[in-house]
Amino acid sequence: MPQIESTANQSQDIVEQLRMEIITGRLEEGMPLREVSLAERFQVSRAPIREALKQLAHEGMVESKPNCGMRVAPASSESMQELVIPLRQTVESFALKSIFAELSEADFQEWETLLEEMRTACETRDYAQLTELDIKFHQSIVMKSPEQGLMSIWVTLVSRLRRHFLAGFQKPNDPMKVYYEHVAIVAMFRTGKLEPSMQALISNID
Amino acid sequence: MPQIESTANQSQDIVEQLRMEIITGRLEEGMPLREVSLAERFQVSRAPIREALKQLAHEGMVESKPNCGMRVAPASSESMQELVIPLRQTVESFALKSIFAELSEADFQEWETLLEEMRTACETRDYAQLTELDIKFHQSIVMKSPEQGLMSIWVTLVSRLRRHFLAGFQKPNDPMKVYYEHVAIVAMFRTGKLEPSMQALISNID
DNA sequence: TTCTGTTTAATTGTGAACAATATTGCAATT
DNA sequence: AATTGCAATATTGTTCACAATTAAACAGAA
Hints:
The structure is a homodimer. Chain A is mainly alpha-helical.
């Protein structure tokens, strides 16, 4: 999001909430999103709801048919995902490179917290929560980058891969695999070696 | 834009107009965009203006400071452009590949028309117009692709390169160069050979 | 003068009513 | 029974009025 300083306004909160519900699959594909229903649910007027939906439409999370309403967008085609995955790898690598030298202990603490939550999500097989945490981890890397507009690009890409997340989690035999992978990533970050860190991050994106 | 069928609504028209004015440099960097002023100019209320500005903000054309208004976003950093150029090449190649087999005479006619306009723009040294036509040419390729959401990604990338256009046009000795390059691209498309066509398209993106 | 705090104005954020458009259901007709 | 036309409903698109927030102007004291 191209906001210079993010003050908490209603529509932004709604965007983040709806985005996560779509990514995690709590809101199924094709489900219509009515402005009045959402307005009642979030206890606000239609205006902030409209803004939120418009933004999600631009991100690719929902589809808009003029005068006919929004609905949760269907998953991207296989070929589309094959296009987007390397794009996402490139963007996140770039983000990591731009922040790597200035990583502080506070950054690592933030990630350690996420890792703990990820561990419990793995243990309880809470795939929706796991998806959310995975997204948040990668998002945090992009968010730390001082490059303006990188986040907008990243969000637009990730929304096309949202199905990829859930699908990827449910197949592996070892349900802790996702957790271990991210532990390895953070550990590699701590070594201070850029190239292997980028490699670890990239290999996690597929 | 993720609209399934594009009916002409006001905010969309405003988006396209403002986007072109920013890309072509008619609206200078840092210039504030006030909702009421724009509402008066376009003879509409603030709501469609707000929607247009929000969309442009997500595309990276304008920056938004909450409760403080929008302004034309400054150009991307050099490193950012170096990131985005190959991304754009990848996206447009993908788009071309997805439409190449079904190109019709109508498509070529559309391009020929653009080429003619491009020629006169080159002859009259109208760099703003030339920028607009260049964008429209590449945009048309992405637009023809049936892949949903490709346009959103493309727009987000191009907005980061908008300075690149104007700068690239004003330097070459031969002012017709831009025209010739696009003529060559379309001619290559007509041969029906995919790989060289993609190469021609890519080489034009730098 | 320079700094600080307060007031004032400008601007965005939100709410609510109205208009325009698309969808749905129903009836009349073939 | 299937189809077409029409009315009723639901939904979005737009306008206007108001609240909340921010930035600027200004006065007063060190």
